[in-house]
Amino acid sequence: MERSLIIFKPDAVLRGIIGEIITRFERAGFKIIAMKMLQPSYDDLFTHYEGIGTLKTRKGDEIFESQLASMQDGPVIAMVLEGVEAVETIRKMVGATEPKSAAPGTIRGDYAHVTYGAAASVGRGVANIIHASADLSEAKKEISHWFSDSELHTYDTVHQPFTQPRKK
């Protein structure tokens, strides 16, 4: 089973759409194994976005700083999901990073519409609802950054026989 980190960004928390999105993940067969609400510090976000995700290196200081500022607009909810090919499937469910490019039916396509240009024109990071790990290596680093081992739970769901391969 793979694990992926999800972060509901402040725009999702403040809009009150978290429950609808969690339902989509659960209906797809993903299991929540950790979840918490927090107000991340600048240092936590720096580690997440640059130490792991290299956003500053890839996109520059202006985009990096606007992203970190927008991530401090309110609390976030960090969550770890587990399931078959979780990272790739969750990325498909989330949709393209820029909401205007996200297909209808994806989380960003259904709940966001802001463009990079519109966000930049007001000096903000793009409000795109949610973060999802980009690949398995990033997922492992992100999960260990936001959660201790004792915060990750193991349990069987009642629908696991229908959403996961049989144990041998």
Task: Provide structural commentary.
The protein has 168 residues and is α+β, with helices and mostly antiparallel strands. It has one domain: Alpha-Beta Plaits, CATH 3.30.70. It is built from 10 helices and 4 strands; from the N terminus they run βααβαααβαααβαα. Helix 3 packs antiparallel against helix 9. The two termini are 14 Å apart. The model has no long low-confidence stretch (mean pLDDT 90).
How do the strands and helices of this protein lay out in sequence?
Layout: E1 2-8, H1 10-15, H2 18-27, E2 31-38, H3 42-52, H4 55-59, H5 61-70, E3 76-83, H6 86-94, H7 107-111, H8 116-121, E4 130-132, H9 136-146, H10 160-163
Antiparallel strand pairs: 1-3, 1-4, 2-3
Helix pairs in contact: 3-9
Note the gap between the termini. 14 Å
The CATH superfamily is known as Nucleoside diphosphate kinase-like domain
pLDDT below 50 for ≥5 consecutive residues: which ranges? none
Report on the biggest sheet.
4 strands, antiparallel
- Tell me the strand order in the biggest sheet: 2-3-1-4
Radius of gyration: 16 Å
